[in-house]
Amino acid sequence: MKIAITSVGNSLSSNIDERFGRCAFFVIYDTDTKSVEFIPNHAKDAEGGAGTAAVQLIASQQVAKVVSGQFGVKVKPLLDSLKIQMISIKGSHSVQEIINMVEER
Amino acid sequence: MLFKTHGDKQLKIAIASGKGGTGKTFVATNLYSVLQQNQVSSILIDCDAEEPNDHFFFKSISKTDKEVQVNIPVISAESCIFCDKCYEYCHYNAIFYLPSLQQIHVMEDLCHSCGACSVACEHNAITEKKKTIGTVTTYLLSGNYKLIESRVNIGVYSPVPVITSAIKEAEQQGIIILDAPPGTSCPFIHTVNNADYVVLVAEPTPFGLSDLQKTIAVLHILEKPFGIVINKSDIGTLAMSDFIQKENYDLLLSIPFDRSVASFYSEGKIMAEREEKWKEIFENLIDKIIETACK
Question: Which of B24, B141, B210, B275, by CA, is between 20 and 30 Å from A44?
């Protein structure tokens, strides 16, 4: 299963980015192969529609879940229709901590 | 008085500001009042479509509403061959496109009705439907004067089509006052771009100065002539008047703060109708505007 995590930087020690559509990087973590991929978010400075673009990006990576701080109102129905589960995290956690939490579950 | 003889030629004057709450509507409604009092052919257009409030200041005899509609594309996933082209043409991320899942649809809230996707599609997969996004209301005032109001529906992404429809409604001779929306984004740009001259109403605070400078930068790009009115001129700092002097901009008027003026205004009343002094202030202002705009 693949999971997307929004991140402020491109390393495992980077904190998660609390904004879904306007995050700096998407981390794609594969729980089967343990592989980690960092994808820069080209839509982060878009005038509008950053959330829509972000959904397209993670959906094309075939993720089942996405971890972020906040999801915008236009994003929620899109993720629901694609059956991608939203996980909202409060406070500062590194990408590695999130991966550990996912693995412990 | 210049403005009495200017009334038969068309002159569009936008009253704008970067910052909100500086007194655009105060200046616009008072200017329109003195034009009416002097029987000058003129019209007032409230371009602040997100919260139009000019109508509070004038008694209307009747009003007529006109709906404003835009075209929204509808994409047929059956006819679509998922070629990417409409998705690439869309500047606003308004097409949700997932070829791997054969999903494509329009995000209506993000669509700017530019029509680029319809041009892009070579496979007749895009048709268009009408969407009502706001209303242009024409209020008939006494003496055959008119107030035209743009009002966008709640939740609509861009009020620009409603604003431009309101301005189009006023194709007539005389002085046209455009009460502009705040900010420096598209609604402001489309309002001032329709004007021959722009009056910037500013308040002399650091915030007010910063927004004034941003607004002037936009007007330079649009190559629009402008002059400045400093409202509440005795509050804040001197940085604004120093800036105006240094850059040699036209300072049209300074209005000192007066609590009784603010209180009277809050009742939806017009100072130029109450006191001769204020009537003269705004008559002089319109004269100065015409003098500067036509030089």
Answer: B210
Does A60 lie at the interface with B, CB-CB under 8 angstroms? yes
pLDDT, tens only, A92-102: 899 999 999 99
Q: Which domain holds residue A46?
A: 2-97
- Identify the sign of the CA torsion A81, A46, B219, B112: negative
Q: In sequence order, which residues have a C-beta less than 8 Å from that of residue A102 and are 6 or more positions away?
A: A3, A29, A31, A67
Q: What is the CATH number of domain B2-41+173-293?
A: 3.40.50.300
> Cβ–Cβ of B93/A55 closer than 8 Å?
no
Task: Report yes or no: A46 at the B interface, CB cutoff 8 Å.
Answer: yes
Q: Is A24 on the interface with B (CB under 8 A)?
A: no
Q: Across the interface, which of A43, A53, A59 has its CB nearest the CB of B101?
A: A59
Contacts of B93 in chain A (CB under 8 A): 43, 46, 48-50, 52-53
End-to-end CA separation in angstroms for chain A: 13
Q: What is the pLDDT of residues B14-23, one digit of tens each?
A: 999 989 999 9
Cα–Cα distance, B149 to B163 (Å, whole number): 9
**Total domains present in chain A:** 1
- Whether the complex's predicted ipTM surpasses the cut of 0.95: no
Topology (CATH) of B69-131: Alpha-Beta Plaits (3.30.70)
- Check residue A104 and give its pLDDT: 86
Q: What is the pTM of this model?
A: 0.83
The mean pLDDT of B266-279, rounded to a whole number, is 96
Task: Read off the CATH number of the domain in which A25 is found.
Answer: 3.30.420.130
Non-local CB neighbours of B168 within 8 Å, separated by 6+ positions: none
Taking CB atoms and an 8 Å cutoff, what residues of chain B touch A74?
107, 109-110
Chain A nearest C-alpha distance from B96 (Å): 7
* pLDDT reading at B7 higher than 70: no
